[in-house]
Amino acid sequence: MDERSLIRSLVPVLGAAATADDCATIQHGGEWLVLSTDMLHETTDFPAGMTDREIGWMAAAVTISDIAAMGARPVALLLATGLDRPERLAGITAGALECCRAYGCDLAGGDTDAHTELTIVSTGLGTALRPVRRSGAGIGDLICVTGYLGGAQAALSGYDQFWERLIAPEPRVAAGLALNAGGATAMMDVSDGLAMSLHDMLGVNDCGFTVETVRLPIPDGVPAEEGRDFALFGGGDFELLFTVPPERFPVAGVEATAIGRVVAEHGVWADGASLPARGYVHTWTK
Ligand SMILES: Nc1ncnc2c1ncn2[C@@H]1O[C@H](COP(=O)(O)OP(=O)(O)O)[C@@H](O)[C@H]1O
Ligand SMILES: Cc1ncc(C[n+]2csc(CCOP(=O)(O)OP(=O)(O)O)c2C)c(N)n1
Ligand SMILES: [Mg+2]
Ligand SMILES: [Mg+2]
Ligand SMILES: [Mg+2]
Prior knowledge:
- The structure is a single chain.
- This protein folds into two domains: 21-128, CATH 3.30.1330.10; 142-274, Alpha-Beta Complex (Phosphoribosyl-aminoimidazole Synthetase, Chain A, domain 2).
- The chain has ten helices and twelve strands.
- The protein has helices at 3-8, 11-14, 42-45, 52-68, 89-102, 151-156, 163-167, 173-181, 194-202, 224-233; strands at residues 24-28, 31-41, 73-83, 106-114, 119-128, 142-146, 186-189, 208-211, 240-244, 256-263, 268-270, 273-274.
- The strands form two sheets. A seven-stranded mixed β-sheet has the order 7-9-6-10-8-11-12, with helices on both faces.
- A hairpin with a 2-residue loop joins strand 1 (24-28) and strand 2.
- Helix 4 runs parallel beside helix 5 and helix 4 packs parallel to helix 8.
- It is globular.
- The structure holds adenosine-5'-diphosphate, thiamine diphosphate and magnesium ion (3 copies).
- One magnesium ion is lined by residues 36, 38, 62, 66, 191.
- Keywords: ATP-binding, Kinase, Magnesium, Metal-binding, Nucleotide-binding, Thiamine biosynthesis, Transferase.
């Protein structure tokens, strides 16, 4: 069993909207509230060698990234922390606060208890006049990504120069806001890798996605073939994947690369071959 099939089983219970986007969306007055929650565990999410401060930063950053992915402005974060050792709370909180401040977000509360494995749940609230959803891709739109992809996987594979990229994600809040204003038609973050994210987008769009791997922005100094593999299938990069009509690209102030096109046929292709839905997915052996 894997995370994706388990989440799909919720659709008949909760409705498709509950699992369609990086954040839940609630209309409130003249704007929208966006809400996201993310759970991180020491063994699966915090590579050995991270300090508590870095762990706190990462816990805040992954949730702020989901808010950025809606083209929304982060407002407040709650941090619930299950601690294996009480003395870790100060460092974790300092790191989370540093990240919140960097993105204009209030660390407004949380919860604390004891747990065998350090476990952190960060829950964030943001606002947008109109959120950008994962659905909304139009045939003929460009498929684009901000920054570069595969850096976190490069670090996990021994390219130590990408360590910071792995442990200190920088959510693309300013880019998300600019892309919202600049006409992005669909958007999400690529936390689980590009291939998996394109398949997530496929699940909520009638059209399809075709990318050219030579166009992928890969980590500097990594051989091209390996870099493309990291970019397609590696997780832990918190860049934005978006679609936009060609006449609206590039979007002022956003460093992004066009990697492909939205097509009428339903599917995901790389260099003309079907791209598997492979990436960073939580699984259960029983
Ligand atoms: N246990 C759950 N109950 C309800 N919705 C869930 C649950 N787990 C995941 N979701 C929803 O499924 C979608 C996909 O989740 P996820 O892949 O974790 O998103 P992301 O990678 O952006 O954090 C999101 O809209 C999320 O809110
Ligand atoms: C041991 C380890 N492997 C990989 C990563 C990189 N990484 C950070 S978050 C993430 C994927 C996203 O995690 P998930 O819990 O699925 O968050 P979501 O996609 O729901 O936001 C990855 C691969 C890591 N931090 N630690
Ligand atoms: Mg996301
Ligand atoms: Mg998330
Ligand atoms: Mg997840």
